[in-house]
């Protein structure tokens, strides 16, 4: 009798174990299928400042517009905080974590990701000169695993606006980072467009944010106004630039809308959020099956004037009615 009870207990235990193992296998299979349907996206942002933060916000909204939100997308977000060594290690981390696609916000991030993988699709977010940065060879026909969105700065329109708002400006001081490829190409174009408007340009390159304060003092002594390219190093220390220019009572013409809001006088700019939105949508389409080689680099090259009326009033600068009428609200 005891043997029968023991046998029955053993059989019941064995049945329970089989049920538990079957459930575990089912649960793992279910989890695996769930993960297979989830878009695993790695995002690397070069540094924290409002313009790049706006791009990332746009990326998430662009994904959402394409149906990727909630459990349908898992974003691994890393920020190098302007440290080039972190760009390399974080790029490799995102690759090692088997993300389906990678987004690099700003040129150094896109370059880091492109160097870390030749198989995972890389989508550039806000890279001004993709060819000069050696990310693609042909904007219309990318031949590798990299494509994305380019924010072509409307430099000619910026030089024209500068001449319209501040006709007495003769010498423009240009502040930029010597380590950012995008900045160098923008400065060369600005020199050409400014010369066509009768403006003299003086260049001031800094290796890091540590030199911005002293460099601004020298720049402002020899210049009537300041022009800034799309430059992440300068943007991350923009309050220092604003403080120096405000003290010298001289106008700043940035290339980013958020920097006009933060103390610049005016610019003709491409909206950073819209850049992010386009980046997110492109990433989603590639994940849905569109090939990188069939996805041309999308170029934003049209901008709108944006004016900081408070700064204009402080500097006693009159804004023509036609400029106000055409400016972004």
Overview of this protein structure:
The chain is an alpha/beta fold and 329 residues long. It has two domains: 38-152 and 271-296, 3-Layer(aba) Sandwich (Rossmann fold), CATH 3.40.50; 155-269 and 304-326, Rossmann fold. It is built from 13 helices and twelve strands. Strands 2-1-3-4-5-11 form a six-stranded parallel sheet, with helices on both faces. Helix 2 links the parallel strand 1 and strand 2. It is elongated, with a radius of gyration of 26 Å. It starts with a helix and ends with a helix. Mean pLDDT is 90; it is low at 28-35. Pfam families: ABC_sub_bind.
For the structure shown, list the relevant keywords.
alpha/beta, Rossmann fold, 13 helices, 49% helix, Peripla_BP_I, ABC_SBP_TrpX-like, ABC_transpt-TYRBP-like, ABC transporter substrate binding protein
Strand content: 15-25%
Principal-axis shape equals elongated
**CATH class of the largest domain, anyone?**
Alpha Beta
Number of domains: 2
Largest sheet: 6 strands, parallel
Stated plainly, the CATH topology of the largest domain is called Rossmann fold
Helix content: 40-55%
Order of helices and strands: HEHEHEHEEHEHEHEHHEHEHEEHH
The CATH architecture of the largest domain comes to 3-Layer(aba) Sandwich
Which strand order spans the largest sheet, edge to edge or round the barrel?
A: 2-1-3-4-5-11
- Unreliable stretches, pLDDT < 50, 5 or more residues? 28-35
C-alpha end-to-end distance = 90 Å
| Corresponding CATH superfamily of the largest domain | Response regulator
Structural class: alpha/beta
The total of helices stands at 13
User: What's the overall average pLDDT, rounded?
Assistant: 90
What is the C-alpha radius of gyration, as a whole number of Å?
26 Å
User: How many beta-strand elements?
Assistant: 12
Pfam families: ABC_sub_bind
Organism: Streptococcus macacae NCTC 11558
Protein name: ABC transporter substrate binding protein
